[in-house]
Amino acid sequence: MRPTPTPDGGPEPERDAARAPVHAAPPDVASDVVHAAPPGVASDVVHAAPPDVVIDDYLRHLAARLTGTRARRRAILDEALDGLLAAAEAHLDDCGDPEEAGRRAVAEWGSPATVAEAYNAATGRRRARRQVLTALGALPALAGVWSTAMLAGPTGPWERRPPLLDAGLGLLAFGTVLAAASALSGLRAATGPRAALPGAAPPLREAATATFGVLLVLATLLMLVVNRGVTAPASLAWPLVAPAAALNLALAAHLAGTWRRLRAHRPARTRRP
Questions:
Q1: Nearest to 10 by CA among 78, 76, 85, 107
Q2: How does pLDDT run across 234-270, given as a tens digit for each residue?
Q3: H/E stretch holding 138
Q4: What's the pTM value of the predicted model, to 2 decimals?
Q5: Residue 201 · residue 132 · CB < 8 Å
Q6: Domain limits of the chain?
């Protein structure tokens, strides 16, 4: 019995934790799941198919190929154990041999590499969706915070409009449009009909472009406030500017960290002979 695809395009459990680093599952994750039945598995199913070397080995190979947080990988292994034990129990009624029933159940699920690829794609789509939603939500938040910080000070800090201001406003407009358009495109790719197709890849390009757009906006805002602080420091309401600048730095660090984890879902490059 293969994992049932969800509307998100992959066999994806409900539980999720997205802030831990991506790394391969250690062996203890698989062994803990195999030898302790998850809450969703009935006790009679566990005793009908005793711990089997075939299923244990399959889950270890699957765990070594999974990406995501420890909680995410454990949820996937719980779901896989549930399905494998149910399939093994069904085959046990036919063949009467627990080991053979385990082999048949594993054969129905497919190779660990194929199953892990489907789960990892679903994890990547989930992370890409969060990334573009963060980028999309950051734009109005930044606009509100910085408008309040900049307009709270005395008006007209310069006698003449400096060229740097015009260049900065142009960069702000470009970064905002780029981030918004890419985030909406990525959100559609991560949740729309294409996400339900077999082998649908996470919208990494859209997430990367949206992240770049927001980072460009953050850098431009800091450039403008530094320029104004140097040329007309008395025109700024510093008690409001300082928290806005801290928000910029925190948001930039968050986006950079989540993007590093999202990069783990890039497809492997094939070398030309």
A1: 76
A2: 888 888 899 999 999 999 999 998 888 888 777 655 4
A3: helix 112-151
A4: 0.68
A5: no
A6: 27-110, 128-265
